[in-house]
C-alpha cells in the first residue's frame, strides 16, 4: 500500500491509501474511499476537486516557460496562449485524447501543434515549448504544466484568482 494522499478538505484531514502511487491529476474529480480524521474514525467517500502540490515534472517546465516569457517580455502574450491551450484541452476531448495517445506519432502531433499555432495565433515560443514537451515525452504532464504556469504567473504578476459561486444567475454580466 504505497499510494498515499494527504490533504485537508472541508470535512477534516484526509488520508487515502491505494495500491500504487497516483498523481494528483489522476485523482482530481474522482471519488475515493478515505479515512476521515474527525472525532471518531470513519470511512466515507470524498471527491477530490483539486490537489495543489508540487509536481516534480510539471513545475520545472512551467517555471522555465515563465522565465522565458519574462525574459522575452512576452509574459502576458504567452499567458494568453496557455489559457487558449488549456481551454482547448478542457473543451475538446478528441484533441486531448489524440495528444495523449502514445500510438499517434509525434510527427502528426507536431503537425497539429503547427496548425493550432497558425489558427490561434500562438507565439512561436509557445509552439516551440509544446514541441519540446512532445520531444521529451512529457505530453501527459501538459495540463499540470498549465496549472503550474498559471500559479507562477499569478505569483509573479501579483494576481489573485477568485472563484465566484452563486445560487442564482447573474444579470448583465
TrEMBL record:
Entry keyword set: ATP synthesis, Hydrogen ion transport, Ion transport, Membrane, Transport
Pfam families: OSCP (PF00213)
UniProt xrefs under InterPro entries: ATP_synth_OSCP/delta_N_sf (IPR026015), ATPase_OSCP/dsu (IPR000711)
Main localisation: membrane
Record GO terms (molecular function): proton-transporting ATP synthase activity, rotational mechanism
Superkingdom of this protein's organism: Eukaryota
Keyword Iron: no
Protein name: Uncharacterized protein
Family: Belongs to the ATPase delta chain family.
PANTHER family with a match to the protein in the record: ATP SYNTHASE DELTA CHAIN
NCBIfam families tied to this protein: ATP_synt_delta
Location within or outside the cell: Membrane
A GO cellular-component term linked to this record: membrane
Amino acid at each position: 500500500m504505497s499510494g498515499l494522499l494527504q490533504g485537508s478538505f472541508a470535512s477534516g484531514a484526509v488520508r487515502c491509501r491505494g495500491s500504487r502511487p497516483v498523481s494528483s491529476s489522476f485523482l482530481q474529480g474522482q471519488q475515493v474511499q478515505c479515512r476521515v480524521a474527525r472525532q471518531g474514525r470513519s470511512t466515507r467517500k470524498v471527491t477530490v476537486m483539486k490537489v495543489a502540490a508540487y509536481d516534480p515534472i510539471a513545475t520545472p517546465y512551467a517555471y522555465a516557460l515563465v522565465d522565458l516569457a519574462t525574459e522575452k517580455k512576452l509574459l502576458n502574450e504567452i499567458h494568453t496562449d496557455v489559457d487558449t491551450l488549456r481551454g482547448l484541452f478542457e473543451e475538446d476531448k478528441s484533441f486531448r485524447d489524440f495528444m495523449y495517445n502514445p500510438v499517434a506519432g509525434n510527427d502528426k502531433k507536431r503537425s497539429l501543434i503547427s496548425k493550432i499555432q497558425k489558427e490561434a495565433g500562438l507565439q512561436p515560443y509557445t509552439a516551440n515549448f509544446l514541441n519540446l514537451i512532445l520531444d521529451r515525452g512529457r505530453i501527459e504532464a501538459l495540463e499540470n504544466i498549465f496549472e503550474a504556469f498559471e500559479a507562477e504567473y499569478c505569483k509573479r504578476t501579483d494576481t489573485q484568482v477568485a472563484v465566484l459561486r452563486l445560487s442564482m444567475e447573474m444579470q448583465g454580466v
